[in-house]
Amino acid sequence: MWGPYASAPRGMAAFNNFSRNENNPVWMLTWTQGDANNVATSPNPYDPFTPTSLAAAVASNHQNQLNPYVQDATAMAGMGSYYQGQGNFTQPLQYHLYAPLGPHRENLLAYQRTAHDFFFSDALREELQRKSEASLQVLPNSSLPAHIDHFHSLVPLDTTNQKNATIFGYPSWVYKAVSSKDGHIYALRRLEGYRLTNEKAIRSVQSWKRVSNSSVVTIHDAFTTRAFGDSSLVFVMDYHPLSKTLADNHFGTAGRFQGRPSGPHVPEPVLWSYIVQISSALKTIHSSGLSARLIEPTKVLLTNKNRIRLNSCAIFDVVQHDSPLSMVELQQDDLVQFGRLILSIATNNPAAIHNIPKAIEHVGRLYTTELKDCILWLLSPSNPQSAKGIDQFLGGIAGHLAANFDYTLHYDDQLHTELNRELENSRILRLMTKLNFINERPEFAQNEQWSETGERYFLKLFRDYVFHQVDAQGNPVIDLAHVLTCLAKLDAGVDEKISLVSRDEQNCLVVSYKELKRGVDAAFQDLLKASRRT
Ligand SMILES: Nc1ncnc2c1ncn2[C@@H]1O[C@H](COP(=O)(O)OP(=O)(O)OP(=O)(O)O)[C@@H](O)[C@H]1O
């Protein structure tokens, strides 16, 4: 029999079920000392529920170690370089790595936690992984050019291969591509067969580079190329993985091409959310002395649930550079196009804009008068004495702006909660990676200074203490709470002491987490130095 539980069987029972006794909730223990079940010789037994001891613990932690991560800074920098080769990542992603534990346990007490509480929510993790998988997608035997300017690894994003020149006057294609300048992924929109006749036209994109709004797909550049075998104009934009157009989302393929109502009725709050986001985009665009020029369902991207972005800005400024319309007129037209977009989505029919009175009547039946009036205002012609403006419109929908702002703040809070859980994971992953780098390296097997016999011996014993515990009967103890607690204490380098017993039970060492942390850092630094040796 080996392992600390052999001499302290009381602790073993308390470690089971991912929870501990009332005085030592798992998540509190991650930052404090005083785990009575460990063979602890800690000078300050800690009670997390006593305010004075909490204050004292915080103060003493501050004194000893203002920031437990600072000591790690160089090592972390090293780890950073280790992870840089992620572009070569080919391993299939594990969507169900943290599969739900089934029905949530309702018999848990307030201080108890399940494994689920320590990790990212499944839905969000899966969504992010799908997006990263889409971003890393490659097309091995593609007939597309290998390089367009400094972009490579082109993957088409169009959902059909039908040429459609109705919107821009040129067939347009969208590709995902990687920039060899910065390694980032961009979306390239190509207008096939475009010939540049006026240099000034393409320079108009410069003003769009300065437009920064969360509801506009950011434009980075535009250039002409012959790499596709024709003369093409290419716009470089932010890439939003797995996004759909509003047309795809609300009309589907059938509705979009057959021009008849399709899909379910869109809830009014969703429409208001679209209205608020497009208004915000237009506010920024118009204040920059520009106009969107194209606001229609196939050119608005849905990048997340109810999150939309205008996706064709700057294009008409180049291809219709000589428009006879003044900027004021173009901005007025933006408002009319905006009204038509909301009308078509509210009626679930892209063809609704061809019979506006009927469509408005339909909206009046399904939605509030406020929404109907808002659409009518956008569609109505401007008064020759005072032109309509986006500021006026924003004033009219102030109540919805506040509601959307509140919704966004709630969402922000929710994401922070998720982020908080992930915080634990990333530092614990780094720590586990370090431990695995250090322990049982074959090249140091005979090295007196290394793990088996040297001063790093206790790191190997610690690994056993964390992962290879057995109970009084010699059965494996599989306890996530124990692992997370030990690793979090190691990361913080707390003063608490633990006894480590060798497998043959011939050696027993009493060390503090602080000493262990120093040992891990020193061993890892040695490894880093050795890895840089030429
Ligand atoms: N910036 C982008 N990031 C990610 N995906 C994009 C981006 N721009 C467009 N896409 C995707 O590319 C596809 C094609 O976009 P496009 O604007 O050509 O729409 P479309 O419905 O094919 O319109 P059209 O009929 O005019 O070609 C869409 O599925 C869209 O989601």
Report on this structure.
This protein has 20 helices and 11 strands. It has helices at 4-7, 9-15, 26-29, 51-64, 73-82, 122-135, 199-203, 205-209, 246-250, 252-258, 268-287, 315-319, 327-346, 356-366, 369-379, 390-396, 398-438, 457-467, 480-492, 513-532; strands at residues 147-148, 151-156, 172-179, 185-191, 219-225, 232-238, 244-245, 300-304, 307-310, 497-501, 508-512. The strands form 3 sheets. A 6-stranded antiparallel beta sheet has the order 1-2-3-4-6-5. The chain has a 3-stranded antiparallel beta sheet with strand order 7-8-9. Strands 10-11 form a two-stranded antiparallel ribbon. α13 (327-346) runs antiparallel to α15 and α19 (480-492) packs across α20. The radius of gyration is 31 Å and the shape is elongated. Residues 1-103 have low confidence and may be disordered. The site of adenosine-5'-triphosphate (ATP) has 21 residues, from β3, β6 and β7. Keywords: ATP-binding, Coiled coil, Cytoplasm, Metal-binding, mRNA processing, Nucleotide-binding, Zinc, Zinc-finger. Residues 160-458 form the Protein kinase domain. Its main location: cytoplasm. It comes from Glutinoglossum americanum.
Task: Give a brief rundown of this model.
By secondary structure, this protein is α+β, with helices and mostly antiparallel strands. The chain contains 20 helices and 11 strands.
